Amino acid sequence: MNPVNYLYLAALLFTIGATGVLIRRNAIVVFMCVELMLNACNLAFVVFSRMHGNLDGQIIAFFTMVVAAAEVVVGLAIIVSLFRTRHSASVDDASLMKL
Amino acid sequence: MSALQLAAYTTSTGEAFQFWVLGTFAVIGALCTVLMRKAVHSALCLAGTMIILAVFYLANGAYFLGIVQIVVYTGAIMMLFLFVVMLVGVTAADSLKETIKGQRWLALACGVGFGVLLFAGIGNAALTEFAGTGRANANGNVEGLAALIFTKYVFAFEVTGALLITAAVGAMVLTHRERTERARTQREMAEQRIREGRHIPPLPAPGVYARHNAVDVAGLLPDGTPSELTVNKTLRERGQIRDVSAEALNDLRALEQRAAERLERTAIEPATFKRPEEASK
Amino acid sequence: MDNLIALLIAAPLLGAAVLLVGGRRLDAVGHWIGTLLSTTSFVLGLVLFAGLLGKDAENRTLTQHLWTWIPVGGFQADVTFRLDQLSMTFVLLITGVGSLIHLYSVGYMEHDERRRRFFGYLNLFLAAMLLLVLADNYLLLYVGWEGVGLASYLLIGFWQHKPSAATAAKKAFLVNRVGDMGLSIAIMLMFTTFGSFAFGPVLSHTGDTSEGRLTAIGLMLLLAACGKSAQVPLQSWLGDAMEGPTPVSALIHAATMVTAGVYLIVRSGAIFNAAPDAQLAVTVVGAVTLIFGAIVGCAKDDIKKALAGSTMSQIGYMVLAAGLGPIGYVFAIMHLVTHGFFKAGLFLGAGSVMHGMNDEVDMRKYGALRTYMPITFVTFGLGYLAIIGFPFLSGFYSKDAIIEAAFAKGGTQGWILGGVALLGAAITAFYMTRVMLMTFFGEKRWQPDAQGHEPHPHESPKTMTIPMIVLAVGSVFAGFFFHLGDRFLHWLEPVTGHSEGDSPIGATTITGATLVCLVVGVGIAWARYGRKPVPVVAPRGSLLTRAARRDLLQDDFNHVVLVRGGEHLTRSLVYVDHTLVDGVVNGTAAGVGGLSGRLRRVQNGFARSYAVSMFGGAALLVAATLLMRAV
């Protein structure tokens, strides 16, 4: 098997995640889909690292994880405060662009 | 041509087997993440996919990342998700009905188009030569990463640290609510209740039903009507009040069924079953 | 002597100003002031005429430059008068007949409380008409042309309390506007072609100009002439113009103004000579109108409308002659002058009859008037004999000359035109005899009117009969006087030029044929109206008679073709405006509005919609990248 198949898998997961972001209304699930997309990218980075024979790809994946963690923290905080005011976690409820 | 280099071009049969099996599950998990109606199920499926991805990291020679993926991602971040899901309501199921006209078709079209393009791009790229991570990992994967992080990527690393701290502070700022007045004591609350005169006695207790945890069952008022006031406010807002009005009939039906089986009365006269008031006469 | 020319115009203009501005305090003497100033003009004309006669035939053109009117670069318009033999003829006709009619009006309008104003308008008309014939360039002529149109409008509608008179005035004005458009276009064409519109430069450079342009100018001038002279197809206003007071009909709508078209064509003879197509059009218009007017004249029971049809027909003769070119110019003017005498006389006679008959105009209610108003009968009868071309009277010479000239045109055209002219002579004899018989012969047919007043026919006062007598004398002798030694021909030839056509048949034969036509026409009329009593109520009549009573459906034609057509055109233009123009404007607005509505829907506030756009954009970027690499 050619390791390039990992890349196809990463592309597939990324696409599924992106479609999920567009389809789901629950903000938490949307975040999960974003996480899925980030993970797909990480997989691609790791495979690239193997392809080039150095560790830079893994470093980038590492940073991605850190950024993803930061993003999740802030994002979930936003969801919680939204839920507090609206009693709903639906992203469509925020369509008036104000609290 | 060493065996190491050869391994870079193709993978071992074991790895190929692992890829196809786990890869299938990863895709299924991703699809379930998107399609599950309950957020908690989505979270569990995503956790599964992430663990599989961790295995793939390990297979690709990224040992440190594989472990971090399990410990930090699946263990910490996903648990954070679960906490929030709990907060919002574990059992709350989303409606999968689309409300924005054409959104679903547009999303699917874009997704399919994007996927096709990505595949085409990967297929077109000359990705036949794989150097393999053998030489890079010669001194150990963690040591290699550490050497890079603290030399070449040290500034990025420091900035990322700053980002993390900012995120932590931001999360606290977002969720923190400044209390602008002193918390009221029980005495003050009781006095207010008397002043307003709406509910002078304590709220009524929820209904009691022997076979269930009965907190989510509305209690009956003296006139026999169920009162939503008896259910906890959180449950009420989530719409998780259970209706038990049909329980007794269902139980009776199950009892009849079992009795009929026991007595080997194959044909039950529906009239007697359906009109118990006549039968009792 | 040159300086007297302006005074010709100034006298009646002064009269008009004094009478119209002077107000009521001039009511008592206003009519005499008007008559005096008109006569002054006539006397001045006689003085100038005497002066012209004292000169050689070649030097009889006088000019008077008053001031430069519009000096704008190459566009130079002068107020200059030109008095030559042609203008002189018109001046004498206008002022002479005009003065007589002023005098007549003193009696005719005696009981009209607005008589002063009437004389003011008459003087205004004289001034405008003199300006028209004395102008040395077409622009100044246009001023006079419009001036007579204005005076005509004011005088037709003089009895404005009658709705029919007001309508007739408007009709005349509107139809005349069509002709005026022709004249203004002709003047513009002249300016672009010759760089001037003075008679001198325009008429002397026709040789070195393309025939197409000259034809265009000629046709436009013909349109103008049609409007003013009531020629087909702009003839419809003349019959209705008889709503005006009878002196007006006599002066303006018979003797002078309606002949302005003939003057214009003869004056522009050089242009028509160089444009045979335009000339042919002129003859055709003349021939058609000749027959048209004659047929209408046969059917009318209203004495003034019958005479109006006759006027139209006689002017048709003149236009026909003017269209023949140098063969006919002199005879056109000669017929114009003799016609001025006898037609003015006839109208004044008709006015006299009406005066005595309580303003009754229906000839079927006349009859046997010869004994009641003998002077009117005699003068009218002389005018009648003159118009039908009774031998040795005015009409005989002038009409005969035109018929000869028509035959002299040569070829098939000559035969056709000559035949039409002969036919016209026969019909003229018929309808004029009819008028004569119905009015003055037979039994009296008048009845008491609604209030029980029986008319008492009586002879008119002297102020009315004297002009009639003078005009009758003119009707009898003018033709003979002009004809004797070809005086008129020699007088006008230096201006209009003259050439003898080669007639296929001899002059004597034509004269004989004309006389035969005359006898036939009179005979038929006698058989129908003289021998049998005339019914008081008009019989139903043949199809042609009924059509002729409706002016040969001219108004119906105008209504269907012009009014309806105009309405349809307007409606379609409105439709085009609503659908196309407004459609484009509103469509643009609606398009922008609709587009904005659609675009607004994109901004729905749903984060997921925005995400779709971003995702789609990202997909496009990837596609673009791949495509760039593939290329």
UniProtKB/TrEMBL annotation, chain A:
It is a multi-pass membrane protein. GO terms for biological process: ATP synthesis coupled electron transport. It comes from the Bacteria. Its main location: membrane. Its EC number is 7.1.1.-. One of its GO terms (molecular function) is quinone binding. It catalyses: a quinone + NADH + 5 H(+)(in) = a quinol + NAD(+) + 4 H(+)(out). It is found in: Cell membrane; Membrane. Belongs to the complex I subunit 4L family. NDH-1 shuttles electrons from NADH, via FMN and iron-sulfur (Fe-S) centers, to quinones in the respiratory chain. The immediate electron acceptor for the enzyme in this species is believed to be a menaquinone. Couples the redox reaction to proton translocation (for every two electrons transferred, four hydrogen ions are translocated across the cytoplasmic membrane), and thus conserves the redox energy in a proton gradient. This is NADH-quinone oxidoreductase subunit K. It comes from Streptomyces dangxiongensis.
